[in-house]
User: Which sequence fits this backbone?
């Protein structure tokens, strides 16, 4: 370690970084994807669901629903997605979610009230208002929402005008994660995601106006055309909006795995040293402006429950990131969903 700065986070040795600058499994979940195997079958999952009743202290229930649809492809994206404008596919998908939920409900024991609900994607706000209503009805008639639970959705401001934000709140959702990545127009053009600052601000302003309890903003460093200077301006704009939480992810360029990434020119990508400086600049700016560095890729305001949990030593992490409710058993519905039942 060389420079003990940046709010208690030390800059790493750059030569060491260059030496180990190789692709590796994503650090956001454990066990990592390369540890999964086909020997865990349907019967194993059924036993795990049925075994909840035997737990000494039955875990509360969390539900993740993957909505894979997107209107357009973002070139950086490595998520499981279906790029389409055909809403007949999404309506069929909601029916399939209902059938999968019935299969789970036939085997699960213990409490079936949801302490957590999270919609990820893809783009969950690809769904029209009537489809969102049908999705929530499909889920909650099988798994009712707890009175004081966390019910969140990932939103794309390009498909989430203020009136849709109001609909989401009416349906019982109380937390929002807003995809941004970078506000710089050249970066946005390079990744095929044109999303003006004003559009994002309007979505988040609407969320606050109609009573969302928490708003997160996703950013990515290491994107094409990104520099320390341009990302510093993005951080300025993030601070102006002042989300409750911020996720700062590292871009993994794996064009052999993700076809859309082949449209990104390697020459446009920042180098290792530049990426590290972008990250540490962001940590410095955010922590100097009221955010607490939760760890790895998350920041939260000092009065946020994640910050309090970190101070109190009760912070946990699951497949959905840092959480104060990571003790939940998590059931996942939809393509690519990953469930976690038991300790």
Assistant:
């Amino acid at each position: 370690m060389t420079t003990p700065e940046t709010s208690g986070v030390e800059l790493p040795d750059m030569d060491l970084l260059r030496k180990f600058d190789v692709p590796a499994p994503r650090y956001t979940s454990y066990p990592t994807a390369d540890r999964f195997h086909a020997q865990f079958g349907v019967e194993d999952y059924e036993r795990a669901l049925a075994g909840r009743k035997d737990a000494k202290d039955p875990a509360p229930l969390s539900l993740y629903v993957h909505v894979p649809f997107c209107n357009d492809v973002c070139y950086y994206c490595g998520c499981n997605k279906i790029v389409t404008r055909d809403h007949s596919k999404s309506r069929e998908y909601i029916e399939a979610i209902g059938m999968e939920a019935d299969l789970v409900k036939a085997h699960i024991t213990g409490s079936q009230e949801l302490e957590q609900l999270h919609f990820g994607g893809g783009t969950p706000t690809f769904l029209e208002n009537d489809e969102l209503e049908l999705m929530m009805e499909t889920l909650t008639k099988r798994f009712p929402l707890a009175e004081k639970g966390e019910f969140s959705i990932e939103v794309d401001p390009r498909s989430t005008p203020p009136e849709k934000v109001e609909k989401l709140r009416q349906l019982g959702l109380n937390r929002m994660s807003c995809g941004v990545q970078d506000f710089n127009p050249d970066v946005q053009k390079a990744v095929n995601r044109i999303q003006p600052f004003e559009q994002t601000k309007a979505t988040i302003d609407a969320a606050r106006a109609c009573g969302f309890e928490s708003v997160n903003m996703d950013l990515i460093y290491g994107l094409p055309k990104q520099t320390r200077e341009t990302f510093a301006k993005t951080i300025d704009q993030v601070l102006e909006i002042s989300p409750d939480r911020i996720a700062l992810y590292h871009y993994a360029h794996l064009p052999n795995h993700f076809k859309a990434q082949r449209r990104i020119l390697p020459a446009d990508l920042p180098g290792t040293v530049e990426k590290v400086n972008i990250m540490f600049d962001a940590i410095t700016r955010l922590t100097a402006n009221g955010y607490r560095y939760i760890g790895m890729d998350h920041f939260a305001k000092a009065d946020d429950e994640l910050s309090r949990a970190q101070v109190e030593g009760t912070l946990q992490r699951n497949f959905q990131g840092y959480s104060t409710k990571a003790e939940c058993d998590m059931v996942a519905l939809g393509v690519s969903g990953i469930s976690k039942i038991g300790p």
